[in-house]
Design brief:
The complex is a heterodimer of chains A (115) and B (114). Chain A is built from 3 helices and 6 strands. Chain A is α+β, with helices and mostly antiparallel strands. Chain A has one domain: Dimeric alpha+beta barrel (Alpha-Beta Plaits, 2-Layer Sandwich), CATH 3.30.70. In chain A, the strands form 2 sheets. Chain A has a 4-stranded antiparallel sheet, covered by helices on one side. Chain A has a two-stranded antiparallel sheet with strand order 3-4. The longest helix of chain A has 20 residues. Chain A is flat and about 45 Å long. Chain B has 114 residues and is α+β, with helices and mostly antiparallel strands. Chain B has one domain: Dimeric alpha+beta barrel (Alpha-Beta Plaits). The longest helix of chain B is centred in the first third of the chain and has 20 residues. Chain B is flat. The chains are: A alpha+beta (115), B alpha+beta (114). At the A-B interface, strand 1, helix 2, strand 2, strand 3 and strand 5 of A face strand 1, strand 2, strand 4, helix 3 and strand 5 of B. Strand 3 of chain A pairs antiparallel with strand 5 of chain B, so a sheet runs across the interface.
Chain lengths: 115, 114
């Protein structure tokens, strides 16, 4: 099986507009979704990110507080999963609860090891 | 110590245009840099990504067969490191060899899942 990265982007406005109860209920859906993949031994790992950004520009010296990505595409978290093909990984990603809160999901194959 | 994610963006054009020898040299720089971080016990993990991808929008109903991000925004890899603060993580990230290939590095602090 290959590894794929799901990059979760945007949806921050929707999240911020919800009540703590709604946010908790939403996080439970995330935990269920990830838990199901873990049960099938398809979940490798992942993290959620704070919104603060330090962006080091090309050249390696200039630092700004803004991502090169637009606000609606700010990465809010990622997970790594196992799948046979990118199509299978994409089918798995369709279950992501963030999609219901206006996030998008970018599915990318991890570069095979030993290159 | 806290954990931080480095999102390495851009540089694909240059990566695609260099000679195998230059690429090998560049990879050696990566190994040296990551080896140094590992020695200091600041390296958690990291992987490069292939350029192709799918993007899901509109609640998952719409699938586009490419990453939405292009050029300088395209994420080409990530690294997880340990540091005491976002500023310290940023200083560490300034040593990333990806700057040899016109990349930028976005540094983000890991948050608790729930």
């Amino acid at each position: 099986m290959k590894q794929f990265m799901f990059l979760f982007k945007g949806g921050d406005d929707v999240w911020d507009a919800k009540s703590p109860e709604e946010q908790n209920a939403h996080m439970e859906k995330w935990m269920q979704w990830i838990g199901q993949m873990a049960e099938q031994e398809k979940y490798v790992g992942g993290e959620r990110l704070y919104p603060a950004v330090k962006n080091i520009h090309p050249g390696g010296t200039k630092v700004t507080d803004r991502s090169f990505a637009e606000a609606k595409e700010l990465v809010g978290g990622y997970i790594i999963v196992l799948a046979e093909t990118i199509d299978e990984a994409t089918e798995m990603a369709k279950g992501c609860p963030g999609l219901q809160w206006e996030s998008s999901v970018e599915v990318r194959e991890v570069w095979p090891e030993d290159v | 110590m806290k954990e931080f994610l480095m999102l390495i963006r851009g540089g694909q054009e240059k990566y695609n245009s260099v000679s195998p020898e230059d690429m090998q040299k560049h990879m050696e720089h990566w190994q040296q840099w990551m080896g140094g971080l590992a020695k200091e016990e600041k390296l958690v993990g990291g992987q490069p990504l292939m350029n192709e991808g799918n993007t899901m929008t509109e609640g998952g109903k719409k699938v586009t067969d490419r990453p939405f991000a292009e050029g300088k925004e395209l994420v080409g890899g990530y690294l997880l490191i340990k540091a005491n603060s976002l500023d310290e993580a940023t200083e560490i990230a300034k040593g990333c060899p990806s700057f040899e290939y016109d990349c930028s590095v976005e540094v983000r602090e890991i948050a608790p899942m729930a």
